[in-house]
Each structure stands twice: as C-alpha cells, then as structure tokens.
Amino acid sequence: MEKLDAIFSPESVAVIGASSTPGKVGHDIFANVLRGEYKGTLYPVNPKARSILSVRCYASVTDIPDPVDLAMIILPPKAALKSIEDCIEKGVKGVVIVSAGFKEVGGEGAEIEEQIAGKCRAVGIPLIGPNCLGVINPSSNIRLNASFSTRIPHKGNISFISQSGALCTAVLDFAADRGFGFSKFISIGNKADVEELDLLKYYHKDPETDVIMIYMEELRLRENFVEEVKKITSGDRPTPILVIKSGKTAAGAKAAASHTGSLAGTEAVYNAVFHQAGIIRVDTVDDMFDFAQAFSARRMPAGNRVAIITNAGGPGIIATDMTEISGLTLARFSRETDEALHKHLPPTANFSNPVDVIGDASRDRYENALEAVIKDNGVDGVLMILTPQSMTDAIGTAEAIVNIYKRTKKPITCSFMGVVDVSAGVKHLQEHHVPVYRFPENAARAMGTLHESTRWLKRRILPQYELNFDSLKARKIIDDCLASGKSVLGEHDGAPLLECYGFKPCPMKLAQTAAEAGQIADELGYPLVLKIVSEQILHKSDAGGVRVNLKTRKDVEHGFTEILENAFTYAPEAQIDGILVQKMAPAGEEVILGVNRYPGFGHLIMFGFGGIYVELFKNVVFRLAPLGRNTARRMIRGIKGYEMLTGFRGKPVADIEEIERLLVGLSQLVTDNPEIKELDINPLFVHEKGSGATVADIILTLERE
Amino acid sequence: MEKLDAIFSPESVAVIGASSTPGKVGHDIFANVLRGEYKGTLYPVNPKARSILSVRCYASVTDIPDPVDLAMIILPPKAALKSIEDCIEKGVKGVVIVSAGFKEVGGEGAEIEEQIAGKCRAVGIPLIGPNCLGVINPSSNIRLNASFSTRIPHKGNISFISQSGALCTAVLDFAADRGFGFSKFISIGNKADVEELDLLKYYHKDPETDVIMIYMEELRLRENFVEEVKKITSGDRPTPILVIKSGKTAAGAKAAASHTGSLAGTEAVYNAVFHQAGIIRVDTVDDMFDFAQAFSARRMPAGNRVAIITNAGGPGIIATDMTEISGLTLARFSRETDEALHKHLPPTANFSNPVDVIGDASRDRYENALEAVIKDNGVDGVLMILTPQSMTDAIGTAEAIVNIYKRTKKPITCSFMGVVDVSAGVKHLQEHHVPVYRFPENAARAMGTLHESTRWLKRRILPQYELNFDSLKARKIIDDCLASGKSVLGEHDGAPLLECYGFKPCPMKLAQTAAEAGQIADELGYPLVLKIVSEQILHKSDAGGVRVNLKTRKDVEHGFTEILENAFTYAPEAQIDGILVQKMAPAGEEVILGVNRYPGFGHLIMFGFGGIYVELFKNVVFRLAPLGRNTARRMIRGIKGYEMLTGFRGKPVADIEEIERLLVGLSQLVTDNPEIKELDINPLFVHEKGSGATVADIILTLERE
Fold this sequence. Notes:
2 copies of one chain form a homodimer.
Chain A: H1 5-8, E1 12-16, H2 25-35, E2 41-45, E3 51-52, E4 55-56, E5 70-73, H3 77-90, E6 94-97, H4 107-123, E7 127-128, E8 134-137, E9 144-147, E10 154-155, E11 158-162, H5 165-178, E12 181-182, E13 185-187, H6 196-205, E14 211-216, H7 225-234, E15 241-245, H8 259-263, H9 266-277, E16 280-281, H10 285-296, E17 305-310, H11 313-325, E18 329-330, H12 335-344, E19 355-356, H13 363-375, E20 381-386, H14 394-407, E21 412-416, H15 423-431, E22 436-437, H16 440-457, H17 471-483, E23 488-489, H18 491-499, E24 508-511, H19 514-524, E25 528-533, E26 546-550, H20 553-570, E27 578-583, E28 589-598, E29 602-609, H21 612-615, E30 620-624, H22 629-637, H23 656-672, E31 676-686, E32 693-695, E33 698-702
Parallel strand pairs in A: 1-2, 1-5, 5-6, 6-7, 10-12, 11-13, 11-14, 14-15, 15-16, 17-18, 17-19, 17-20, 20-21, 21-22
Antiparallel strand pairs in A: 3-4, 8-9, 8-13, 23-33, 24-27, 25-26, 25-27, 28-29, 28-31, 29-30, 31-32, 31-33
Helix pairs in contact in A: 3-4, 6-7, 7-9, 10-16, 11-16, 12-13, 13-14, 14-15, 17-18, 19-20, 22-23
C-alpha cells in the first residue's frame, strides 16, 4: 500500500468546507465528487449545515463515525490549520488543500502553510496543495472527481501532474475533444509537501500509467532528482515523461564575471536537468498530446528506418520532410518487399518509399502494402497516410491496419486527413490504441520522438574513469584565498587549484620587475606570454595587459614595462600583484570549460568552443554537476560543430577523452568546493589524440553560499 | 471583367463527362454543383444520357442553346482534347479539366496536355488543371461547388490555392471544424496554363479576398515572379500570402565544385524566392490557419509592444514566453494606464505586464483592464487570455472585448482556453472577426507573425547605388575562356573578370620559374602568397599548392620549387599553368560571396562568413539574382553573427556598404553572363569602414545553359 493511494484511490472522502451554494468552491468540489459517481463513501463537513445536496453533513471530520481516507479541505488558512489538526486526530490518510491564500500571498498565509506541512510530515500524512485544483481518478472502481471540473475524463493510460490549476480545465477540455483518456490527474499547486518526484515515483509504479505528462512552472530540485528520475525513464519498465516548462524567456543570471555565468540562465538549468533525467521537453499542449498518444501505445521503433504508405503524393512529401527533420530516415526495401509491392499494387503506384498506393486505392492496397513493408527487416516503423478520395474506404483501411498492428511489434502511426469523412476510421484506430493524427507531419514527428526515446533507452554506458584528485590540497588553496579575502582568482591561484583535479596549466611564474621577468623567461623557455595579475583587472586584454608570442628576453622585458604602463592608464587605482610569465600553450583546438552555481540547483558545467563561438554564437552545452564520464561524453558530442574535434578537413583528431576526464574533474572540484561560484577555463587548448590539453587562461570567483 | 471571373463566378456551367453513376467523378462533380445550390445555370454534357440527376443532358457542349461561361471537363485525354475544340467553337470563357492521365503520366498524356494548353492560349481561354480537384466559390450570389467535396465551406475572406487535390478535402474539413470560411478555393493540378501568379494577381484584385493561402509542391518561376508578388504583398492594399511548400528535405544540388554550389539546394531557392517576394512560409496546416485567422482581421500592430491580460498566472507565463520568442516585447505601461489598472483591479492583481486580473475575475475586470491598456500609446497590440474558472464569464468577456475592439485600430488576439466551457464566448469573438485561439502560445505566435509582416511593409528602401561596370570586357574574358575550352577558372582569369564589376583582387602575376617568381615578388612587394594554377587542381591547399606570408625573395623562390614538387606528387598528370605570385591581402573580416545557378530559377547569390563558418556551420544567406542594394543590405543583416561586422568586442567596424555594392555587382555579373554556373569568392577580406574589401581567392565554373 503506497501512501499516495489515499489521495488517488481513497475508500472514503470528507469534503471539509463543503457548501450548498452553487459557484462556491466548497459546493462545486463536493458536487463533482457526488455526481461523478464516486465508488466510495462521501462525507460533507460543515458545522453550519445539516445536509448538503441531500447528503448528511458533519460538524467536524472527527464526528464522522467511519474511517476517512482522504480529506479535501476548502477553508481559509487559519481554519484549514485547525482542520488539519482534526484530520490528524481522526487518522485521515491523505489531505488535499484546494483553497488559495497561502505561500503565494506571503505573510501569515506562508507561515500557516509551513505549519500545516510540518504537522502532516510529522505524522506521515501526504498533503497535496494548497492552492490547487484537486485530483481525478477515472478508474471504473474508483471514479473520483475531486476537482473543479464538472466532467470526469475517460479512463486511459496517461497520468498528468499540473502545477497550474488554470491549465487543468483547458487540458481536460482539450483531451475530451481529442478523445484522450487519463489514468490519474492531479494539480499540485504550492507543493507544500508532495511534489513532482513523489508523484513521478508513484505513477511509475502504477500499473495503469504508461505515460506521464507534467506542466511545470518551477522545480525545487531535490539532491537526488536526476538520478531518481533517470530510474523512471530508463529502468526495467521505463515510463516516458513529457514536460511543458513555462517561463522560458525569463531573464537569465545577470552581471556575471564569466562567460559561463552570463550564459547560464534558468533555461540552461532546466534543459540540463531534463536532458540528464531523460525527460522529454515539449513546447506546446498540442505537441504534448501528440507525443503522449504515440507513447501510450507502448511500442518503440528499434531503429530510425521508417516506411511511408500514402494514397496521395503531396501528403507523402510532407511526411517525408518531417520524417527527415525528426531524425528518421526513409527505409530502403528488401527485394522481397519490392516484389510483394509489385504483385499487389497497380503499375502506376510508387513502389519505393514513400509507397504511393494511388488515389483510387480502397482497403486492399493499403492492407497488402502494409503487410509487405511491416515484414521487412529494414523497416522499424510505418507511417500510414489516408486522404479521403472517391474510392477511399477509411473504416476498412482502419480495420486492416488494426489487424496487422496486432500481429506486429513495430510501431505504426497514422494520419487520416480530414475530420468528417474519415471519422469512423479514426475512431476504430483510437479504440485499438493505434496513434492517429490529423496531418502527416504530426504523425511523423511523433514517430521521431519515439525514436529519440529509443536512443535514450539504448544509450551507451561506458565504465567511469578512474581518476585521482588531490582534494585536500585544493581545499587548502580555497581556504587560504577565502581567509585572505580573495574572491576573484586568476591563473596564479587558479592553476594550482585546477592541477589538483587533473588539469595541466602552462608552466608560469609571477614576476615583479622587468629583469625578473627576463630571468624567468630564460628559465621557462620561449615563446612566452605575459599577463597582468590584478584583482581589479578582470578583462586583461581590454586593459592592454597581455602580450603573446614573445620570443626573446628583450621582448619580455620590454613587454613587462608596456603592460605596467597600459594598466596604469586603464585603471590607475588597481593593485598590481605582478605580471605572470607563462610558457605559450602548444597549438590545439580552442575550447571553453566553465562552471556557474545556480541557486537551488547547484553547479552547472559548461562546454563549448572558445573565442567567437562562445562570445557571439553562444554555442555551448550545459549539464548539472555531479557528472560522470557518460554525461561528459554526451555533452561533447552534443555541441554543434563537434566535427571540429574529430579530424575535420585535415585537422588532427583531438584528445576528446581528455576533455571528458577534465569535465569529470571539474565536476568533482565544484562538488567538493561549493564556494566556487563561477569559473571559466578559456581557452583550453585540446591537443592531438593522446596528447592531452593545456589550460591557457582561468578566471574563478569564490563566494560562500 | 477579369478572365478568371469565368472560372470563379460563371453565370453558366457545363459539366462535360457528367455521369449518373454515384462514385464516378463525372457524377460527383455534377451532383455537388447541383446540390450546392449554384445560382447560375447548370448543363450536363454526355452523348449517352438523356438526363442526369433529372437534368436534361446534351450530347455536346455545342448543342447547348444558351451561352456557357465555364466548362468542367471530366474526360480521358483524347476525349478532353476533342471537347476543348467544341468549347472553343461554343465560345466558352473558361475551362477546368479535372481528369488525370496527362503530364503527370508522361508520354501521350503529356503531349495532349500541351496541345490543349496551346489551343486555349491561342484563343485566350483560361485553363485550370488538368489533374485537379476543381473550384469553389461560396459567395452567396454564386455558390459554386465544382469540386469533389460534398460540402461547400462558409463564406469568408481567405482564398486558397492548392497544387495537391488530396490536401484540399482535408483542408476543407479542418476549416469546417475550426469555423473558417473561404472566399475562393481552387486546386490547380498540373498548371498547364493558369498558375500561381495568375491566381495571386486575381485574388489580390478581388475585394472579397483579404488573405491568400497556398499549398505548393513546386514552382515554375516566371521571370517577373518576385517583382509581381512583391506588388501584391506590399503595394497600396497589401494582401498577405501564406505558403506551405512541401519537399523541404529533398536532396540538394550534388557534387558541386564550390561551397556555394554544395549549399544551394531546393530549400535555399524557395526560401530566397519567398523572402524576396514577401511571402510568409509556414510549416504546418495548423500554423497556416492560425496565421490566416490573424491576418483576416486586417489589423496590423504599429510596433512590437504587446500587453497581455490574463486571469491565470501559468498561461500568462506561456504567453510571455511565446511573445518574446516571436520577436515581440512586453509593453511598459504609462502612469495613466497604471493608475487606471489600480483603480479597477483588486489589490491582489498583477498591475504590470502581463496583467493578471486573478482567477475570480468576471467580465468587468477584463473590460476595465483592456480599456486601460488599449489606450496606452506604448501598447501596439493586446493578448487576452481567459481560463474557465468559477466566476469566469466567457460570453460577457467576449462581448466586452468586441465592444472595445470596434473602437480601436489595434490588433487583439485572444486565447479562450478550453473547448466546452468557453464555446459561446469563442463563437461571439469569431462572429466579430476577433482572432481567438485555444492556447495562449498560438495567440502570441499569431501576433508575432502580424508584427513580422508590419516590418516587411515598413522596411526601409534606400536609393540604389550608382555603379559602373565594364560589361563588354567581362563578356570578352568569358568568351575567350569558353573558346579555349576552359570551364574552371581560378584567380588568374577570374580576377580580371571580377574587376569589371567592382571587385578588387590582390595584385598578382603568374610565374613560370622560381627566378621569375622572385623577380615578380620584388616588383609587387612583400608579404606574398604563392598559389598553384592548374585546372586539374581545384583544392590547392590539399595539394600543398599554397604558401602564405612569404617575406623574402629567397622564401618565394624556395616556395615555388616546393609547390611544384608537391603538385607533382599530388597529381602527376596535372597540367600546371604556372604559379601565381600574389600580394597578401590586408587584414579584414573573412567573408564568402558566391553564386550558384539553379535550373529554372536563375542565379542564387550567397553571402556568409568564411572559413569554418561556411564549411561546418553552413551559416549563409541566399537571395535570387537580380538583386539591388536593399536586398543586399537585408542579406547581410540577416546573417547570424552580423555583429562581427559592426565592431564586436573591439573589432573595427567593417565596410558593410562595400559588401552591398559587391553583392549588387556580383548579381549584375551573373545576370549579364548566364554561362557562370558556380562561383566562390572565398575569402573576401572586408576592411575597416571606408576602406573597401579585397578578394583573396576565386573559383568559378562556366557552362552554357
């Protein structure tokens, strides 16, 4: 028995704050449970009424003579608090607070919410809300509609979690319109106690749920969220999770010192979380339903090779386009398939993919064509397109598809175009859980999403690198910096820190005079770089504080003097720690690694190409720490222009494994030292395969959380 | 009287090939005209029948005793040809051939199609089809449904052109489902005579058409297409044109010698045509209807500042996101607006944009809030979002919106979420032509498309550059090359050619021996580049055929010998014309200009950033020649990373006007010399503003068309 059973499948429900006045929430919720033909027992609670909608009313939940599983509370904050105490006394097993006026208004409301959540948690009663729309379970042996919605949806295998109550009604209406059913439906409001992860785990275990949809406004990330959700999306019985996350363009982190900081906003965080957890993000409610329908059939394509069967050229082209845009390819048919198609189709048909059975096709040609291609080992899934024409037999074709569908394990998605003429066929397909869409592009995109999910499920998992880090030394460097009040670190302090986690900075030494610089230069060897070191000068180049490719002692000494002069002009007040004399990094591909701490989520690790790529094109990938080899690997492979590392146009193949190791090291560095707020390693020169990588510049800021 | 009136508004229609057998095309079309309550006179023509559906039948169109405006022909090719002769004899004013079996099957069918088109053209009778679905005009004084569709759509202000017959039925069904009406509806099939441009011009003049939708499979570009369509989309009475073009991922041009050639595919051509003509391309039928609805209200936002009014937070956030993604911004309210909002809304409301009138809002708050923001001079358009909650008054709110809508000129788009609860309100909005959508993201995107169109209408048009080209000299260079059998030109021939059209190549001279190279080097001055010249070696770098940054005569002579050795190893058979000694280009931003001839469309001009940007990121823009200053200007501004030319991070501002002039020159070069098949100027170094640009490398191929 799961705790949340009390919420979704209670044997008895008390509506506390039930009312006789239509239009009041306390009336509507009570009426909806009652009229929804709830299979359990329903008790109204209201000290001022004798009965509500003819049902005997109780003054308090404690007066109810029988056990109560679920309490729906529709009361203002103070009264809700009191009633929670009653519920605990009564031994209620689950609570939903529908009313608003709590944390979302702040002040006393927020305080009371915290008290209520605390009381529930202390006795282990799950609490939904406050400020939510309620809960629906259309299962025939429950039929619980404890919500604002007057209609209870059909039974289906999709479960829904919504943070917004307002969206729920629209989603229910939309689902009714498209013939969708739900398994469980809940609005979670302020999430004072039960939140997404609890429900995801519950839905995952629920045998009646095959797909999960979430509408999310903000996520409070628990530490193990990513790992726990990964188990749901890719375990033994993976459950696909589709999410709409609103607040996309919300302003990102502002006024950051590093590139990483300026690029890491809300969007980067959420996309990283979703990617790592295997959650599929969608943009619109339409897409969510399109994809949910495909997943709810519980069939995944083994690969990306799709056959298209159509009775009209235009829609076939549209489907082909969207197929390729969605990461699928058109299957090439075997000789057997080709022969079978020639045997069953008229000579004017198109026998190669997309197969065109021609406008005057009736049921037979569709059936024979599908029969032929579905058997082909080179076909992973089929798209069936039907346009109503004079000889078209929509219902017959639908029956044929369903018959074949039952005998195969391959996914089929259909587009029966038109609303009226094809409705009988569409209904037949829906009844037999064959995904069907109005337009071919939707059917193709849905198949593409299934395939993406297959790739996630079949992703390669390599053993972790065995890496040794000197975390004690790193800790000491950071403690020393913090103790001396340093908050912005350059290479001088940053390089030894990074060395503890496997990075290789260029050899360097700080010089205080031109003569000393010259001497260091001779020791290190040429060519060399000079860089000013000052906490007040972050953008060294802008200040004329950098000289590169110096080849003689004379150049070094001269450069030293110039830099000092420039710095004085640029920032007369700056305190100069000295000038760093640094061996020039050997040539390599210029990449950037970075870190940004995001409140509530921890450290985001960034990877991208350096220079103009990061500055102008913002072509970077983020993942949340901690990350291991496999995440690092997918990060690097996910960057646009990845080919630059794999031997593009005669470039040497770069040491990609070294970047992987360094990303893992970076992740460990910031996990061990949460004081690191921002960090840019820019550029990191990645050398030829097997030759490692060299850190050429570092900027790092520390801040206690 | 327009010629096409005979097609859309005939006073009499003859159905030639009419039939009594249900299911036959000749029956269905005749029955649909008859039962659609056509206001004119209808004559069946069939030599074997006395009457069809009780209507007296004629053996030939010439037997009809009255004048015939439109002949619908449903006959196989040979019979159709005969009947066309009858039609001409009869003086029919317009012809639609519905039947298939013509050009699309090739052979005799194609020949007959050509004959038919020729005969019609000779006497000036417009011909639609063959191989099409027919024509529909729902106007109450016509009511012509000469199509396969049993239903005639509502009257509306959107006209539709479809190349695919199959899609038509689905579009009609979909429109009926969403409550859309049409002004004119036609399927054009093989386009033997009348094609898109004829219909676009006709629709543009039609006072009953405000928006045009096209479903296009392929376009045969007439020379003046872009200019003519531009007059439609941006003249005195601009008519927006929305297009779905299928065949997006069709394989592009293959095996091209130039970057431009390899990047210029079907997609590039069509996008260039649409861009230049002001046609709005959409991806899905859903989007087409969403946007058509917004345009059909005939209101454009003056700017991009949008106010959002909502009764729920979540949908408000979604709308905000999509608003910003769609190129709009949230309006900042004036003090007056702010005061008005505070006066009329409860204290818990959100007064800044998006305005949240809170879940318990009835009609009044919506009305007052809209009244306040619509008056604000800082607001260019309003998004109204309504979610059904207990106090929501969907119909009242819709009435209030309509009242205010009638008093303003600003566009308003609405999202009344949910299907059932809000349907009365939605209907009221639709009846008064206020665009309304199911989800807020659709309403926001539609507003964004309106704004994009405003930007097109208000685009800046600068006077053309006055440029002088030496077209005679250029012609001679090309003729000489063609005469000597040269098809691939490098810098040696290409540079003087480009000079005729305003380009400035680096000074250069061809050397045959190391000593000669040294002598030329001293003449030209240092630093220098050496490049091999051979028609067999196109990729000079790959062959070790390039040496750069040579600073002494010794280096040049040594480089000459090395290159010859490398070339011999790389391609022993290659005929070496010599080695080019070329002054190194002064520094500048590296861009690429290119040309590719696309069959049937002419020359595509390409602009992009050079090097890895074009090679790996394919970040380029195409436009069709001929192009002038304004198109060139928008091309350059349209490139991703345009900021690299405008002084990004301390780079000098580049000579953008010189790139504009060179694009115009390049366009003129290829217009004057259609033998140019492909051309890459890569890189062109663009210097600081006012300092021009230098061509550093050229490859050019010639081929007579």
